[in-house]
Write a structure and sequence with these properties.
By secondary structure, this protein is an alpha+beta fold. The protein folds into 3 domains: about 10-50 and about 190-320, no CATH class; about 55-185, no CATH class; about 400-480. About 55% of the residues lie in helices and about 15% in strands. The protein has helices at about 10-15, 15-25, 35-45, 60-70, 75-85, 85-90, 100-105, 110-130, 130-140, 145-165, 175-185, 195-210, 220-255, 270-285, 290-300, 355-365, 370-375, 380-390, 390-395, 460-465, 470-480; strands at about 55, 305-310, 315, 320-325, 340, 345-350, 355, 400-410, 415-430, 430-440, 445-455. The protein has a 4-stranded antiparallel sheet. Strand 2 and strand 3 form a beta hairpin. The protein is globular and about 75 Å long.
Length: about 475
């Protein structure tokens, strides 16, 4: 087969169609539950594993909490209500209700209980009946007498109903509880991501490379990969997935809960990869047939948002119900969550910068004081807030500000003058801070901002130099006009 060095006009005209196809597939925010389950069973089969229990939940946070819950059924429920605040409780409002019993319900906040019930328990029960129970039955038959063995089928429903209700203790005898609990715990010990990734790499990626990618010139490959894969990767992986994972880790850590690594091989973060190979497969090499790619491509349309897999159990998050990006493909909304899930779990981003709920509400729904803005340590958040409120609002609303020093300089050896003013501001009763007002020119327009500087500085130019990590003498000599 000859190396392909350039596209025909007809082929070139279709590049954007495939990019848009997978972009729209993600942004449809639809979820095909049947296809998602088939996808998981197919993937497990690739590594010689039996179809797992599949727990489908509304958000990645619900997935993390469900794993933590099932990881330690005995102690987790009694700690959960104190570990999860009202925000996380409201985020799980419709998911796990029918799964938790009256004892657990009394220990959980009402919103969290109703959420955890409707999905986790009903799914766990129906699948556990057909999988864990069949395994347990074979183990128990050699240990329990024939009468108990014959009663297990009729007693299964009531016993499994009580697993999450009484934490596998009150209605199961100690031997059954011991085996079921240890089996469930062991299943949650080992994630299968590396096995599945290796198998997909050897079976799927190797075929795609040898039969498709290797037939492209390096220049054409780079061009197509940038157009088809990189743009989607930038939006879905570097923005959505990395940001969500980072905030999930932080939120779980603050509640002293464990974060479980998501398995990326089956979620929508691979849509850039699929856009690239879908185009090659259909438009450049239409006679080549790779059945495993066709399966993977079709199953990926289930739109699994996040996935955590163990030996015997898979946890799936549905996609968000709302997501918004700005013109630079950054998560963004100043009105509500930039990404929001059906269980009300969501995260706030403005121009790609994360804001916790309290700060977001204070800045964009209410009013934040000038003093509070100055105390914000995150420089990216502060820059966005200054842009939102404007310099004049912030500076003019500072209380008890007193100018300590003012000096004027030529900006970057031009005739344009800029002022540097140092102010002393009372931040908290009895506690003063120094604020530097800085001016500069950018694209012909004079800009202003305020910066915090050490309280012992009394000279405006020394304060400017301090923000540039140089001495006053060095700044004056080299005319470094930036802060």
């Amino acid at each position: 087969m000859n190396m392909i060095k350039q596209l025909t006009k007809q082929q070139g005209d279709k590049v954007n169609i495939y990019q848009r196809k997978w972009y729209n597939q993600f942004h449809s925010l639809t979820f095909d539950e049947t296809k998602a389950k088939d996808f998981i069973d197919w993937a497990y089969n690739l590594i010689g594993k039996e179809p797992p229990i599949k727990i489908i939940l509304d958000s990645p946070m619900a997935v993390q909490l469900a794993i933590n819950l099932l990881k330690d059924l005995r102690s987790f429920s009694s700690q959960l209500s104190s570990q999860i605040d009202s925000q996380l409780s409201s985020q799980l409002d419709s998911q796990l209700s029918s799964q938790l019993d009256s004892q657990l319900k009394s220990q959980l906040e009402s919103q969290l209980y109703s959420q955890l019930s409707s999905q986790l328990y009903s799914q766990f029960r129906s699948q556990l009946e057909s999988q864990l129970y069949s395994q347990l039955k074979s183990q128990l038959e050699s240990q329990l007498d024939s009468q108990l063995s014959s009663q297990l089928d009729s007693q299964l429903s009531s016993q499994l109903d009580s697993q999450l209700k009484s934490q596998l203790e009150s209605q199961l005898d100690s031997q059954l509880y011991s085996q079921l609990y240890s089996q469930l715990k062991s299943q949650l010990e080992s994630q299968l991501s590396s096995q599945l990734y290796s198998q997909l790499e050897s079976q799927l990626s190797s075929q795609l490379y040898s039969q498709l990618k290797s037939q492209l010139s390096s220049q054409l490959y780079s061009q197509l990969y940038s157009q088809l894969s990189s743009q989607l990767y930038s939006q879905l992986d570097s923005q959505l997935y990395s940001q969500l994972k980072s905030q999930l880790k932080s939120q779980l850590k603050s509640k002293k809960l464990k974060y479980y690594t998501f398995d990326f091989w089956g979620d929508t973060s691979w849509f850039g990869y699929l856009a690239f190979y879908d185009f090659l497969y259909e438009e450049l090499f239409p006679t080549v047939k790779i059945p495993i790619f066709e399966k993977y491509r079709e199953y990926s349309k289930s739109n699994i948002n996040f996935l955590v897999i163990f030996d015997g159990i898979a946890f799936i998050s549905k996609p968000p119900v709302f997501i918004n990006f700005d013109t630079e493909n950054r998560l963004h909304s100043t009105h509500d969550h930039a990404v929001s899930y059906n269980d009300d779990y969501g995260l706030n981003f403005v121009n790609g910068v994360y804001f916790d709920n309290d700060l977001f509400k204070k800045v964009f729904k209410n009013k934040i004081s000038s003093e509070e803005i100055l105390k914000i340590e995150n420089a990216e958040q502060k820059a966005i807030i200054i842009k939102e409120y404007g310099f004049e609002y912030i500076f003019n609303n500072l209380k008890n500000k007193k100018r300590v020093d003012k000096q004027t300089r030529k900006f970057n050896k031009t005739e344009k003058e800029v002022d540097y003013e140092l102010f002393e501001v009372e931040i908290i009763n009895g506690l003063n801070s120094k604020i530097l007002k800085v001016e500069w020119y950018e694209k012909g327009k004079k800009r202003q901002t305020v910066l915090g500087v050490p309280s012992n500085i009394t000279d405006a130019i020394e304060a400017v130099a301090w923000t540039c990590y140089v001495t006053k003498e060095h700044w004056e000599k080299h005319l470094i006009m930036e802060a």
